[in-house]
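quick one: zinc ion bound model?
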Amino acid sequence: MPIRERSTRWVLFTSMVVASTVTGCVSLETAETIPPPAFYARHNPNKRPPLSTSKSYTRKRPIIQPSRPIGPARHHEEWLPVGRRISPRWTTIVLHHSATQRGGAKSFDKFHREARGWDELGYHFVIGNGTDTRDGLVEVGSRWQKQKTGAHCKTAGNYHNKHGIGICLVGDFTKSKPTPKQLASLSELLRFLCAESGISANMITSHGLVDPKTRCPGKHFPMLSIRKSVLPRVATLSQP
Ligand SMILES: [Zn+2]
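yep, here:
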């Protein structure tokens, strides 16, 4: 091959490598296969997965990396327990629907006390659908203020009540989808909780996934896309 042609090919190859570095890799993976996010680095920098290395460019499988730093989850003072730290007990987040067309923290609290005989609202957060409360409004339950175990997901050893943050979206998602504003608020709340509590985004689950006796939060609840919406942003918390 003539030197000039070889040199042109080399320049082309180098440009492609540089371009892929700048724009980032295209993810072909689903949220279920994306490796655990790296935000543990905030607590343990030595366990952070390695960032891009020269080997990355020669691998055939795409490397899962944020294409650019997006920044940490937005801070929401109103979602923090007043006068307390977030308890280290939380290891998972359990998503629910209310299985009702309307409602809010106040009416669910009344129902849980009067019909179920519980001491207070079973969930930690409720996200409104525009009926009793504003569409997408995040209501903080009294349990979260006290950092008290939940009453929303009975499983073996009561694990998901003891260690799971319970979030309920108002609506019956066996019949219809959550509103776009509910999903946007949920995504924002999940990013916040993962960042503040150190829970891995892979530990976000739903009631029905851990308790086969229920279909909560319904077939129209977009579990996969919600998890995907949380993963990339949480992962960027490890970026320097
Ligand atoms: Zn449920």
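Residues 11-71, 235-240 have pLDDT under 50 and may be disordered.
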